[in-house]
């Protein structure tokens, strides 16, 4: 799945809270920001799960932490 598809999924899916969707709505006209937030999944490294806080698969947020804590691949 490409970055724009992931972005649209997060933006439109009611699984994600209204604050997350509002944050993503705010970047709808910024393709480089969408790409940065969704081009990859946040990686679990030797220091644990670390990253910029915000909405997206390449950001630290409730959803990426939830998936990592369950041992699931982040999508």
Structural account:
With 75 residues, the chain is mainly alpha-helical. The chain is 45% helix and 5% strand. It is built from four helices and two strands, in the order αααββα. It has helices spanning 3-12, 18-25, 31-38, 62-69; strands spanning 44-45, 48-49. The chain has a two-stranded antiparallel ribbon with strand order 1-2. A hairpin with a 2-residue loop joins strand 1 (44-45) and strand 2 (48-49). Helix 1 (3-12) packs across helix 2 (18-25) and helix 1 (3-12) packs across helix 3 (31-38). The longest helix has 10 residues, at 3-12. The chain is globular.
List its salient traits.
single chain; 75 residues; mainly alpha; two-stranded antiparallel sheet
Strand content: 5-15%
Secondary-structure element series: HHHEEH
> C-alpha Rg, in Å?
12 Å
Extended strand count: 2
**C-alpha geometry:** globular
Mean pLDDT: 92
Proportion in helices: 40-55%
Please give the largest β-sheet: 2 strands, antiparallel
Number of helices: 4
Detail the topology: elements first, then pairings.
Blueprint (H helix, E strand, L loop, with lengths): L2 H10 L5 H8 L5 H8 L5 E2 L2 E2 L12 H8 L6
Antiparallel strand pairs: 1-2
Helix pairs in contact: 1-2, 1-3
Summarize the structure.
Helices cover 45% and strands 5% of the residues.
């Amino acid at each position: 799945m490409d970055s724009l598809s992931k972005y649209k999924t997060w933006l439109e899916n009611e699984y994600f809270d209204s604050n997350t969707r509002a944050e993503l709505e705010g970047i709808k006209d910024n393709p480089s920001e969408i790409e940065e937030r969704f081009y990859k999944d946040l990686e679990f490294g030797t220091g644990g799960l670390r990253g910029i806080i915000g909405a997206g698969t390449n950001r630290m947020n409730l959803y990426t932490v939830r998936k990592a804590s369950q041992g699931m691949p982040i999508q």
